[in-house]
TrEMBL record:
One of its GO terms (molecular function) is glucose-6-phosphate 1-epimerase activity. It catalyses: alpha-D-glucose 6-phosphate = beta-D-glucose 6-phosphate. The gene is yeaD. The keyword Transcription does not apply. The active site is at H171, E274. Belongs to the glucose-6-phosphate 1-epimerase family. Its EC number is 5.1.3.15. Keywords: Isomerase. It comes from the Bacteria. GO terms for biological process: carbohydrate metabolic process. This is Putative glucose-6-phosphate 1-epimerase. It comes from Marinomonas gallaica.
Amino acid sequence: MDAQLMRELEELGGEILPNSLRECDEIIIDQPSFSARIALWGGHLVSFVPAGQPDLLFQSANEGAQTRFGRRHFGVPVCWPWFGSNVEDEDLPAHGLARYFRWQLVEVGRFKNGDVKIVIRLASEDHPLIEEMWPYAFELRQVFRLGDGFSINFSAANLTDKPMPISEALHTYFHIGDTQSAEVHGLEGVKYVDKFDDNAISKQSGVVSPCEALDRVYLNAPDVLELHDPVFKRKFVVASEGAQSTVLWNPGEALAKLRTDMEEGDYRQFVCVETANALDNQYEIPAGEMHQLRLTVHAEATSQD
Ligand SMILES: O=P(O)(O)OC[C@H]1O[C@@H](O)[C@H](O)[C@@H](O)[C@@H]1O
């Protein structure tokens, strides 16, 4: 690790700790108003705990298989450059390659208002396996802004001389008290593809509740949604830019039982509200250009709902 970066991280009250998972480091940031963890393996925000509140992101005791393509079920995994299964090659892992490689820490500092800034990077040239999995040259960056809530600015640059086909998601596992009482607001009237109903197309009527046994891709979804959690008495305000789709996912009891990467009862404690471009919302990044996907999450206390 670069000595200058280490010093800057220490000045922020941060540290790098070895993590047993794939023997890859995690960045730990401890501040008076929050603590956060970013895993370099898979390059994702794992945990964000505002002082005095439960983690905004779901944590499982089950870390998943320790193999390269073993899954992890917490935080904000990055699904890129394909969302879901790879239509051209079924042997490739679901949800792309970005969550299966080690990202590099490239910048540590603060924004003008004092928020913590952490920047990590992954490029196609970083690992020969990346180039085997996908025939495009790229550079990805994530700028994490940590303060009153968090934001992730994910950018992808196409370094090839051909258009790059992209479907993607910031696959946020929101930590909730109970799927049965949680509600997603803001998708009323939006069309969705229901993967649990043979990809039937439906239109959302009313709020989404309960948030259990769902696998839906909402197309051309609005930029701001709310997730209400009456158990923890808070609501998440989830805002996005550069994303046309919202995916809601929770495996429900029966599917969760079949998974080897979740503990019993885990599925009641999270719903994924994913900032995405999927199915009809997939797109191309022109040669030499880049695309940005931004996610901002704030948690607000609620009294009665
Ligand atoms: O287990 P994974 O690969 O992380 O995927 C979890 C789920 O992610 C969701 O985004 C998909 O819509 C689901 O179909 C999928 O099952």
